[in-house]
Amino acid sequence: MEILHHHRHHLFWYVLLVVAYFFSFTESISRRDFPAGFIFGGASSAYQYEGAAFQHGKGPSIWDTFTMEHPEKIADHTTGDIADEFYYRFKGDIALMKEIGLDFFRFSISWTRILPKGKISGGVNQKGITFYNNLINELLSQGLKPFITLFHWDVPQALEEEYGGFLSQNIVDDYHNYVDVCFKEFGDRVKYWVTINEPNIFTIGGYVTGVEAPGRCSNYIGNCTYGNSGTEPYIVGHNLLLSHATAVKLYKKKYQASQMGEIGISIQSLWYLPKYQTVASTKAALRALDFMLGWFVDPIIFGDYPKTMRALVGTRLPVFTESQSKMLKGSLDFLGINYYTTRYADDSTSSSTINISYTTDSHVNLTTEKDGIPIGQPTVVDWLYIYPRGIRELVLYIKKKYNNPPIYITENGVADNGSSPIQEALNDSLRIKYYCSHLSNLSEAIRAGVDVRGYFVWSFLDDFEWDSGYTIRFGMTYVDYKNGLTRYMKRSAFWFKNFLQKENVIKSKPLLYQSFGPFNPKPKVRAEEEEVSEDGRKESILPKRTAEDDLVIGKSKSQDRKVPCRPRQSP
């Protein structure tokens, strides 16, 4: 009875939030505002979603080690050992993706689930191969397609211990061998590959500030036992670039002709506004872009680092050989961009020849406010201020500087407080405004000639958010970490479902039907675990469709349903 009451309580809140959704918004956006063939999807990563961290032959990664040895560096002292248990629940989650109407699911492959010791010589884990084959096949059978990231920060711990991971150029060959296995085993069904996700953020968090794995930094920067924030970031970045180029070369030479896929890289970048209308502020904003975006995109497009970095970092910035530069230049079919927020940039007058660091090398002072006014709407995350125009300006800048490469927005989203009551978390109107305003700006950029081809929300599910643990929620789907990891569609998921549907889909399958209540299919468990499962999970508790549902849904006369965007102002 208690479980039934629990579900009824949440169903009540679902009814309220969905009905409120239809009556509280004005203005609209449609899928028709984007080109034919434009794709929409949800994004994820292995460590943040899968769980099963030490099961079925998976080896440890630096994130397994980091969260275990340094719980104080995670906001709530948690780990990704269980996370969303996507490893066992992927079929139910894919069914929910289908329910929402997503075209693609972006996920990463765990290096150590394929090669537990990071090397071919350490053995290939067939159970890992089987898992990803099953995941890909399930996506395809449900009408979705995979968009796969090969490396999303989870360096094999064995390689970290053997030679320092990405601090050593030895990793290039091991990464090459790992991706070769992935291309061979999965490439016949995969048309989009991302070599590395956010190499800049991985490097900054792991080797500049030390707040993320492997937790290295100078002692004058953060609480780290080892590291050098002025040298190691550039070494790691260099080896990440060489790994990327090696993977692209391999794919193009050995697999692309037969598998007919595309390969690229995903870079996170902020947009930077000159804080003042001065030459100094304008130059500072451009330097900030060079040190964040150009650090990785310039070598991939032009074959070398930005001139500003060469001038300011000097001999601490590694040099590419002629053959390396040639291998890097043009090594992408598309550019993935992860955009979240914007900063003001101004020239920094302070400099130090003693406490050198990547953070001060650019001679830029970054701020989130001007004259006491925030750059955008603040959120629960101290680094994320909502500035939708930034996504448009960023891709326009890329079009101009890098000759308009094909772009996929591989991450875009906003977080809520992880401890909010479930009814409050489900009513995520801020996320709807965030999605809608960013999509509107992206649509404007496309009309201005930018070759943007797809958009992925971060994230499909709430998940383990690195050093924030579970204290914040980026998902369009709520994960109840206190009650069996039950999934609930948030208000933003309803919005996205409505945005994606075409008229014939709406008529045959109304929006509200089969969408209320928890979405929690019984997880796939190992045979030896069947008897100890205690939660008695059921498929879904669904309300009966009523005439009121039809009244709320209405009919759409256009080919693509326009969905409301912005809340009405209170009278």
Notable features of this structure?
single chain; 571 residues; alpha/beta; TIM Barrel; 8-stranded parallel β-barrel; 40% helix; disordered N terminus; disordered C terminus; transmembrane helix; transmembrane; Beta-glucosidase; glycosidase; GH
Concise structural overview:
This protein has 571 residues and is of the alpha/beta class. The protein contains 20 helices and 21 strands.
Number of helices: 20
CATH class: Alpha Beta
- Sheet with most strands: strand arrangement: 2-3-4-5-6-8-15-17
The radius of gyration over CA amounts to 23 Å
Give a description of the structure.
Helix 15 (389-401) runs parallel beside helix 17. The chain has an 8-stranded parallel barrel with strand order 2-3-4-5-6-8-15-17, surrounded by 5 helices. It has a 3-stranded mixed beta sheet with strand order 7-9-10. A two-stranded antiparallel sheet has the order 1-21. It has one domain (41-85, 104-494): Glycosidases (TIM Barrel), CATH 3.20.20.80. It has 571 residues and is an alpha/beta fold. The protein is built from 20 helices and 21 strands. GO terms for molecular function: beta-glucosidase activity. Belongs to the glycosyl hydrolase 1 family. This is Beta-glucosidase.
Topology of helices and strands:
Elements lengths: L1 H22 L1 E5 L9 E5 L2 H4 L12 H8 L16 H15 L3 E5 L2 H4 L11 H16 L3 E5 L7 H7 L7 H16 L5 E6 L1 H9 L24 H28 L2 E7 L2 E4 L4 H24 L4 H7 L8 H7 L5 E5 L3 E6 L10 H4 L2 E4 L1 E2 L2 E2 L2 E2 L6 E2 L2 H13 L5 E5 L4 E2 L4 H5 L2 H19 L4 E6 L14 E2 L3 E4 L5 E4 L1 H10 L2 H6 L38 H7 L9 E5 L4
Parallel strand pairs: 2-3, 2-17, 3-4, 4-5, 5-6, 6-8, 7-9, 8-15, 15-17
Antiparallel strand pairs: 1-21, 9-10, 11-12, 13-14, 16-18, 19-20
Helix pairs in contact: 4-6, 8-10, 9-10, 15-17, 17-18
